[in-house]
Specification:
Length: 473
Amino acid sequence: MRKVLVVEDEKLIRQGIAAMIKRSGVPYEEVIECSNGLQALDILKVTEIDVMFTDIRMPKMNGIELVQAVHDLDNPPLCVAISGYDDFSYAVEMMRNGVREYILKPVEREKLKSVLVRLDQEISSRRMDEEKSVVADTMLLKYILQDSTSTSEDVQLLGKKLQDEVGDSYLIIAAPEECIPSEHCGIFLKKVHGANIFIIPEARGDFLKSIKYIGVSDAYTDAKDLKLAYHQAQARRKEAFLQNISIVDYDIPEIPQALLESAAKYYEKKSIGMRVQLMGTDRVKELKKEWDGFFISAYRGQIPADEFIKSIEEFGTQFAQTYKEEIPEEIIKPLSSENLDTFKEVFMEFVLNCQGRLNDRGDADGTSAKIQDAIRYINENYAGDVNMAVVSNHISMNYSLFSTEFKRHTGQNFVTYVKELRMSAAKELLVTTDLKINEISAKVGYDNEKHFMKSFKAYVGISPSEYRKNARN
């Protein structure tokens, strides 16, 4: 087993149990200790625990409440209750809530060891089953991606796996790489040609509502159609990406040939090379105009998805050859972003940052003073509509140069710096005031409460209300 958690409010007992675990002879990576259920729950939310030993009577959150809360976790540990004779009725309640073993105090070394041995065997068996599943998934992946004809035995095995996992009729979903399933819904394959792949029962179409910017295949019943379904889903995922559509489950109508030809100039190798060369000049408006034309044409469907991806890859190759610099992976792999808007923002920040750096003619001392003025302005106005264009205009500095110099002076890009200011202010307001979440959202510069809550959880790890509760406890 990997990690074991001991939850006990009495320090000496807790340390004694931890010592017995370490000397039991059962292999482990780490034994973690904490003194109450709330602390344990915080640990379980961020750390994968294999086995948890918990006392029943504890302050703040007792053992029964802890075991009940554990059921809501994605990877709940195997639980063992530890308590005295007087708490036996509570122990029965814990067993009803899924506790695997019950040990009486004072804890006997041999009893604890026998429990650990049994649980370790169960964990090992479960991991072997998971490894077998990975092998089956690898075979499935091989079948989907290989052009060679598979044997009838391969197809038969795949058909059985599909039947077991998704039933008689299935859909394939191609989703952004950051999209991870929140529930078991079929077969999940990570990072296949720039997408995470889900194979789900057709009846679970409601699952589609929980993820965005995806391509969905037609429904199929035969394992022989897996390859067709996969290519359908991938093609539709690319269209969802380019057109910023949450779900594409149909074939996009063909664009008239004349429109395709009018946009072809944007993805010609020569045109891409010209945009790379512009990055070494001070012609920022022309550089932006050329890239804007490229992205607008892609959004309108005038640049085929595969040509768009090839163009970005070609840009990365020519940039590296011209300026002898490594290029970040997220810049040359568009589908790692959710949609075209998100990718364009990341891509253009990179392009303009590089243009400013490559063509930096600024006076060092004067630039430093301007950046300090910008920082003061941001610190005073972060709760309003602050963006890079506003701030660079405030200090009369070229947009791209400002982006580059700001990161050089602060060690952070502009967006991250402003977000940290807003999150810090939000945390302080959550702890020191009784303002509602929507009021705090507005005070720190968010005009959309849901966006604020999503950003806060991504930054802190828990929701604003959970943060407030923890801080006050």
